[in-house]
Amino acid sequence: MAATGVAEGDLTDGEWEYRPVQLPGDVSRMTAAVRLAIQAEFGGWELSRVRLYPGGVRKVWLRRRRSNRMLPELSV
């Protein structure tokens, strides 16, 4: 992880940072919602976009405002 708190794979756009997360098809909708809610509560992330692919795979983009203070890492 870089010193700025931006992990490899994160993207930044102006005042927002984005984190792509891929959830396998065997993860239920309820489990996915709980995982994302935990990240929102403790990591400062919010849902930006969700794409559902054949086979049930979900690609989720989370975003949060860029900040100089260190926020907890995403763990899905």
Chart the SSEs and their pairings.
Layout: E1 11-13, E2 16-23, H1 29-43, E3 46-52, E4 58-65
Antiparallel strand pairs: 1-2, 2-4, 3-4
Tell me about the largest β-sheet. 4 strands, antiparallel
Task: Count all strands and give the number.
Answer: 4
Strand order of the largest sheet: 1-2-4-3
Q: What is the beta-strand fraction?
A: 25-35%
Order of helices and strands: EEHEE
Which residues form runs of ≥5 with pLDDT under 50?
A: 1-8
Distance between the termini: 16 Å
Q: How big is the Rg?
A: 13 Å
Structural summary, described in words:
The protein has 76 residues and is an alpha+beta fold. It has one helix at residues 29-43, and strands spanning 11-13, 16-23, 46-52, 58-65. It has a 4-stranded antiparallel beta sheet, with helices on one face. It is globular. The two termini are 16 Å apart.
In short:
The chain is α+β, with helices and mostly antiparallel strands. It contains one helix and four strands. Helices cover 20% and strands 34% of the residues.
